[in-house]
Design goal:
Pfam families: DHODB_Fe-S_bind (PF10418). This is Dihydroorotate dehydrogenase electron transfer subunit iron-sulphur cluster binding domain-containing protein. It comes from marine sediment metagenome. By secondary structure, this protein is of the alpha/beta class. It has one domain. The strands form 3 sheets. It has a 3-stranded mixed beta sheet, covered by helices on one side. Strand 3, helix 2 and strand 4 form a beta-alpha-beta unit.
């Protein structure tokens, strides 16, 4: 990431690497301090949801193009199985294996996607 970025910021809940705490705090600080052209969020769905909310321009911060890396369950890689399906805020449907996995974070219906992702928790533990 550092070879294609002006700055890479790593945040962990426990501070074991990078900054301790939630990613939206340093993100907001940077957005207030300087103009950024793109945000790429890779991590848990809940984190990507709040990054997209931070960068969507609805508050006192500017809108910033944001890509979220949706690492959903992907079985066939063609969208036929529907395992990687996600809803968009305009009521549409996309497939992470076909339309992503890196997608515009501002169109993802994260509430719906979080519910879908929780359906597979037991299988992921196996």
């Amino acid at each position: 990431m550092s070879s294609v970025s002006d700055e890479v910021i790593i945040c962990t809940d426990d501070g074991s690497e990078g900054t301790k705490g939630v990613v939206t705090v340093p993100l907001s600080e940077i957005m207030k301090r300087e103009k950024i052209s793109i945000v790429i969020a890779i991590g848990p769905l809940i984190m990507m949801k709040f990054v997209a909310l931070t960068t969507n321009g609805s508050g006192d911060l500017p809108k910033v193009k944001t890509f979220d890396s949706l690492n959903t369950i992907m079985i066939d890689g063609t969208g036929m199985c529907g395992g990687c399906r996600f809803s968009t805020l305009d009521g549409g449907v996309q497939f992470a294996c076909v339309d992503g996995p890196d997608v515009d974070g501002h169109i993802v219906d994260f509430n719906n996607l979080l519910k879908r992702a929780n359906r597979f928790v037991d299988q992921e533990k196996e």
